[in-house]
UniProtKB/TrEMBL annotation:
WD repeats lie at residues 6-38, 235-275. SMART domains: WD40. Residues 275-289 have a biased composition (Polar residues). InterPro entries: WD40/YVTN_repeat-like_dom_sf (IPR015943), WD40_repeat_CS (IPR019775), WD40_repeat_dom_sf (IPR036322), WD40_rpt (IPR001680), WDR53 (IPR042453). PANTHER family: WD REPEAT-CONTAINING PROTEIN 53. It holds the Pfam family WD40. This is WD repeat-containing protein 53.
Amino acid sequence: MTATLTGGHTASVLCVDVDKTASFLASGSENGELCIWKSDGSLLKKIENTDTGCTSVCFSKEKENILYVSFDEKIKIYDIKNLEEPVDCFEFNQEEINQIVLDEKEKYLAACDDSGEIKIVDLYDKKVFKTLRSKHTNICSTACFRPRKPWEIITGGLDSKLIHWDFSRPKCVDQFNMQELQSVNAEGDAYMFNPPLVHNLAASLDGHYLAAALENGHVAVFDISRKNIRELYSLHAHSQGTSQVHFLSNKKLISGGNDCSICIWDLEKADQVETESATNGDATSNGHTNGEDVRNESVSEAAKIAEIQHVGKINWMKPFVLDGSQKIAIADQSPNVTILNFELEEI
């Protein structure tokens, strides 16, 4: 079952978020339109910002009715109860912001931009706490605070790098080159034509997993439960670039891609296959590269529990629960927002 939010945007919707009570949904489009929708699908407010894009929206989970929105290099903060003017505005980034995220206690906001920099903003003092720079050599597309580690953040970029930071110092703790981690598949595989650019990151709330959406169609899964992050396996997810990853629960993961498909994964099943493969030595049976591919294919086959076909390329997704039903808000290349509903038994 699906519902469509129409009559708000006039251009492709880039981003979407839902507040903690699922009372409001916010969406932003490439021509700078910010739309606030009520849970019944009606449009509460449309805010237009001429000659700028609305690139990221993020509801506070601690402060009721507070919404953070990025318009190019600016961050505006709105109170849903009074949307006439923003309650605050930050202008710390020098180039277009690609994503804004909040830490667990909502003391800090991270804004990653086209220059490859990440601004860590202290929301109490309303100033830049730290600037993370000189590691991404291209656009920094995504950021994710590490759960249960208050001073750590992980970022990904179009340089195919995934970087683990301690932003209190600031210091690069570790970095991963996804081009080196992602094995080269057999000739004719569609993945080999696309480099593993990092488009989106998501962490499970229990701090066990990190998932990375990659341009080569894969979802790289990392173990972040220990001090040092390590790659577990790569889910062969989409026939085109993977654009979005989100956790439905600590073990269930959802991915969306440019192939218009949405995949739902059970990482517990993936871990079981991974453990069996390690025990049997399958990863090295045919040489490192072929063995890794065989293992990842086996993991992917076991872990995928559902696939849903959407009507367009997915720009952003946000899973949420309303009245006991699992839903996904989807932003695609159309001016509409789709609300997909599926039964809890499916996941």
